[in-house]
Amino acid sequence: MALEDTMRSLREFDLGDLDFENVGSWPGAIKAIIFLVVIVAVLVAGYYYHIEELQLQLAKVEAEEVKLKQEFEKKAFQAANLDAYRQQMVEMEESFGALVSQLPSETEVPGLLEDITNKGLLNGLNIASIDLLAETSREFYVELPISIVASGSYHDLGAFISGMAGLPRIVTLHDFNISLKGNNANNLQMKIIAKTYRYKDGEA
After folding, report:
1. What Rg do the C-alpha atoms of the chain give, in angstroms?
2. CATH 3.30.70.60 occupies which residues in the chain?
């Protein structure tokens, strides 16, 4: 009977009769329905709010997963090629040692100057001067510039420059300046800067 009475009161109820200033006078069935609607709305809102938070967390975790996968792939590649890297390191150390052995020490610089002089004389040049210039310190080595002034024919100058590559130490040539000396086309004067390098080997 209570259910029939409730259903009948709902059919007979007119929404226009609701007095929002006196909610306590509303029929119990209406209050129950409104209460359920509010509860459902709160639950739905809370559910979607919670889902949104979980989605943000999921997106963050997925982005972190992608980053970790990339790091793993990189490290896996490095691990797979570790032996090759070690072999390359050995080869680089050997090459570096070979290059360092071609850099003159301070005690070998006079011998290098003598080699340059002999190379010029062997190629028929008249060596006017060979002067050491101020050293320039770099990060791992010291640069030793040498000013050379020599004269001879074009062929002799070319042979001298080519012969510099055959020296036992590393020497690079810079700032070429060739001019005619007098009226003789076979008497050219060359000014050139030769640079050699000394390994710092732990110098301050």
Report:
1. 46
2. 104-199
Give the 3-state secondary structure of residue 3.
helix
Which residues, including other chains, have CB under 8 Å from residue 91's CB and lie 6 or more apart? none
Q: How far from chain centre, in Å, is Cα 174?
A: 31
Contact 109, 101 (CB under 8 A): no
Reading the block at residue 153, the tokens are 């024919």
Cβ 196 vs Cβ 170: under 8 Å:
yes
- Reported as a single tens digit per residue, the pLDDT across 66-111 is 888 888 888 888 777 878 888 888 788 777 666 666 666 666 778 8
Helices 109-122 + 154-164 axis angle, to 10: 150
Any idea of the CA torsion for 27, 29, 32, 33, to the nearest 10 degrees? -110
pTM: 0.49
CATH 3.30.70.60 corresponds to the domain 104-199: yes
